Amino acid sequence: MIILQILVLFISISFFFYGLGCFYSPKMFEEFKRFGLTPAQRKLTGFFQVLGAVGLAAGFYFEPILGFVAATGLSVLMSLGFGVRIKIKDNFILSFPSLFFALLNLFVAFRFYSLFELF
């Protein structure tokens, strides 16, 4: 349970601030241009990252289904991000964080799934 708590804290903080950066950071504005994505896609990505961060925390402290949905959603989001990195031909070093977070969120989703009360 402590591993899940540490991972949820790490992922939630990471996605919360990265998501906010999608709204306010000029560096993020340039990155999304480089990715070939629109400002609306940048804002939507930021919204889902902040929502996912909050959902992970809520899932840990209140209801595991929230954490499962949030972690699954963030895993999908990061898989798409990895796909964008591959499409624009970023190198492995630049692409790895999105793959890492996709797999990490998938692991957390399975951990949340194991907490469901079946009856």
TrEMBL record:
Bilayer topology annotation: Multi-pass membrane protein
Origin superkingdom: Bacteria
Keywords, comma-separated and alphabetical: Membrane, Transmembrane, Transmembrane helix
Cross-referenced InterPro entries: DoxX
Positions of transmembrane segments: 6-24, 44-62, 68-86, 93-113
Main localization of the protein described in the UniProt heading: membrane
Compartments reported by the entry: Membrane
One Pfam family cited in the UniProt record for this chain: DoxX_2
Protein name, as recorded: DoxX family protein
Native source organism of the sequence: Psychroflexus longus
Highest classification ranks of the organism: Bacteria, Pseudomonadati, Bacteroidota, Flavobacteriia, Flavobacteriales
